[in-house]
Amino acid sequence: MAGSPRPSTTFTCVQRRVPHVPGLMEGKVAVVTGAGGGIGREIAIMMAGAGARVIVADIGASLTGEGGSASPAAQTKALIEQRGGQAEVCTESVAAWGSARKIIQAALDHYGRIDAVVNNAGILRDGIFHKMSEDDWLSVISVHLNGSFFVSRAAAEHYRKQESGSFVHITSTSGLIGNVGQANYAAAKLGITALSKSIALDMQRYNVRSNCLAPWAWSRMTSSIPTTTAEQKAAVEKLQKMTPDKNAPLAVFLSSDAAKDVTGQVFGTRMHEIYLFSSPRPIRIVHRAEGWTPESIAEHCIPAMKQAFMPLDTSEQAFNWDPPE
User: Fold this and answer.
1) Which pLDDT does position 14 carry in this prediction?
2) What does the pLDDT read at residue 223?
3) Which end of the chain is more exposed for a tag (fewer CB within 10 A), N or C?
């Protein structure tokens, strides 16, 4: 009855054992490269929280690839264990065939199997194309593109035998769309998407999946963005709100059995947005029965196609809206 005094009630608290609810990656073993910080660390932590046993692979090098330390990987391992998860450290490099194989072997040695690989390790050597050195080119290609191939190739042998497994390769809008001063990085990242599609095609008969994720996040990899103009400062301020953990849920999903029907795709994560990228396909065709000459191409073909040309834009220009917070 409205206005009636609330009856006095005595509550008895009964402790109940909360039943274990398996996570999406319960029983699986995952390797996450570049997991000593940033996006890789957040993916490793969330994977462990979802039930996976994780190999935290990181050589602890600088942003440009120099030096090495076990501390970053050890810190990630400690964070996982503090949350009740299981993890081991591997400080081998992804950039060489032999050492990359040792990363996968670490999963076998510690946990007896391998179910998921996240190719996240990377370095930056930014510079305008006409000033880029041979070493800056080769170093970035070696870590990003070669590293993704070497680690994936090592895992593929075991995936084939067990007829299961997943790959998540970290790509970038620098390669998918474009960016200034990142010819090496962009080439490697776009190459990774082709590698991923090839893996998906070649290994679908073994129930092996391969997908890409293009993340947006403020991390060590983006902290080198210049802030000399007001526009650059504003862009960095927006990027700083995009914390690395925003990218982990999709990586965990793609590595789990919940994504058993998802392969050969390129996804992106930006704050609370998830998007799917298109792949290059013919968008306009011009036919000439008598064939083409350079002159007729200039007169007929290019004018017919020009309205469909892709703009010469950067990833920042293509993503010209603020993501909702």
Assistant:
1) 39
2) 52
3) N
Dihedral sign of CA atoms 93, 94, 100, 105 in order: positive
The alpha carbon dihedral of 136, 137, 141, 144 has a sign of positive
Q: What local confidence, expressed as pLDDT, does residue 3 receive?
A: 42
CA 166-246-273 angle, to 5 degrees, is 95
CA distance 147 to 142: 6
Partners of residue 55 on adjacent β-strands: 31, 88
Phi, psi of 269 (to 5 degrees): -130, 135
| Interatomic CA distance for residues 235 and 102, integer angstroms | 40
Taking 70 as the pLDDT cut, the residues of the chain under it are 1-22, 218-241
The C-alpha torsion from 183 through 218 and 246 to 193, rounded to 10°, is: 10
Q: In the chain, which residues fall in CATH 3.40.50.720?
A: 29-276
Neighbours of 77 (CB within 10 A): 24
* Fold for the domain defined by 29-276: Rossmann fold (3.40.50)
Measure the CA–CA gap between 271 and 58, rounded to whole angstroms. 25
Supply the pTM of this predicted model. Answer: 0.87
Tokens of 123: 């370095």
pLDDT at 222: 52
117 and 151 in contact (C-beta within 8 Å)? yes
Given a contact cutoff of 8 angstroms between Cβ atoms, the answer to whether 76 and 87 are in contact is yes
Residue from 111, 185, 206, 275 carrying the catalytic annotation:
185
**How far is residue 226's CA from residue 239's CA, in Å, rounded to a whole number?**
13
The residues pairing with 215 across neighbouring beta strands, listed in sequence order, are 269
Is 185 considered catalytic here?
yes
